Amino acid sequence: MIAKSDSKKIVQMIEEGSGFWTSSILIAANQLDIFDALSLKKTAQEVAKKINGKLRGTEILLNALTAMGYIKKVNEFYMNTPFSEKYLVKGKETYMGSALGHYYQMWKDWGNLVDIVKNGSGDIQFEKKFLETDANQTEVFIDTMYQLGQQDSVTLASKLDLKGVKRVLDVGGGPGHYSFAMIEKNPQIRATVLDLPLTLRVTKKYIKKRNMTGKVDTIEGDFTKDDYRKGYDLILLSHVLHSNSLKDCQKMINKSYRALNGGGRIVIHEFVLNDDKFTPPDAAIFSVNMLVNTKEGASYSISEITSLLKSAGFKNFRHGRVTERSGFVVGYKE
Ligand SMILES: C[S@@+](CC[C@H](N)C(=O)[O-])C[C@H]1O[C@@H](n2cnc3c(N)ncnc32)[C@H](O)[C@@H]1O
Q: Which GO terms describe its molecular function (predicted)?
């Protein structure tokens, strides 16, 4: 007999347990270019032909997407809603669907979570799979970082004291948008993005797109192994610690300390956990993504990050939030 007081939680459990159904429908539609096909209305038969698919699967998928509100169905014709036309048609300036491509990169490994918890993450390394070998997959990943980080980059810059900052190093800067936002706040700043070669091809696309040529340059390097050079007033590590072990994070923070000018500061921006390690919930759930997709990464807490900074020699810490699940810590080199 189900207790009345439990029925709400049972509904939640069933919804969470089957959450991958709707997730897979949306991800598959993006992979199959369904939204590109439905800029003009089409029958299921016409969509199947366009995407090189079978009629049965195409029709079932189209009806589910209609039920989920991403497309409309009138008589036998399907077409995009205004939302999907704006955000899910590839190649449009307003396209926000790269994240769906990125989730497709990860979801097969998520299916192995039981084995990963039992046996460890083995050799699953997102970086090795894509970032060092596959330019197209790297572009999907870095486009996702750009699309998801547009607002956060502006919020972070608005919360930082950038007075007197001239030289910035953006370690694992990806598309470079956090540097762009700092430059927009303080036009004196010149920034360097240190990242892997395939990523930097995409960085250069965004430097051009955002008119940052001459203000942002790039250096190829591995952030755990290579030297960061010297002469920076601010070093940013945004969303890079979580894919690494605490030992490698310490290495990166030590390198940053050496590369900074006296009086310079390090800024760590991350999905930060509270000391209980389960709040905020998004940061705890993101940590499972790191368990699945990296060898030794995880979400870290503000106190773990601050203690790495202390060990490197940083002082005068300040921290704050950027979103519900992300926050920053600033430390100074005296
Ligand atoms: C999650 S993204 C963060 C991008 C950006 N900093 C942001 O906050 O949106 C991680 C970045 O680290 C880079 N990266 C991963 N492994 C690296 C390595 N070993 N050396 C240098 N960069 C690396 C990736 O190419 C990517 O740009």
A: O-methyltransferase activity; protein dimerization activity
